[in-house]
Amino acid sequence: MNSVKAMRGCLLLEAEGKLVPFAEAVFEAYWTQQQDISQDAVLAALCERIGVEPQRFLEGIATPQIKARLKANTDEVIARGGFGSPTMFVGGDDMYFGNDRLVLVRDAVLRRRAATTGGETTHGH
Question: How far is CA 70 from CA 16, 31, 76, 78, in A?
Fold first, then answer.
């Protein structure tokens, strides 16, 4: 599945505060509903669901600026040792790969937060 358009969409919608709702909609469409997120019609329907005008979205993800940002982000992850998506970094150099590592990412963030505030951070699983 080609996710380039969806990744460009995240970059486009980040400035509007819509990155998280869009990413959640894309993940649900792909992983739960087995929709083809490379298709403009699928992305347009997801945009409508989160209150983004589909035509503006499709035009925006095709701009040279958004394409260049995604390429730069991809090049940066590769330079830092990343090899796939999702690759996440905590504190700049603590790398995690895969959505099955989100619990580890959360724990690493909480450990860093506790270390910088000098206190313990409690959390449940």
Answer: 17, 22, 10, 12
Quote the CA–CA distance of 118 and 59 in Å, as a whole number: 47
pLDDT digits (tens, 9 = 90+) for 31-50: 999 999 999 999 999 999 99
Report how far residue 4's alpha carbon sits from residue 67's, in angstroms, rounded to the nearest whole number: 9
What long-range pairs does 57-64 form, CB within 8 A, spacing at least 24?
A: 57/9, 57/12, 57/13, 60/12, 61/5, 61/8, 61/9, 61/12
Global confidence as pTM: 0.79
pLDDT of 122 reads: 53
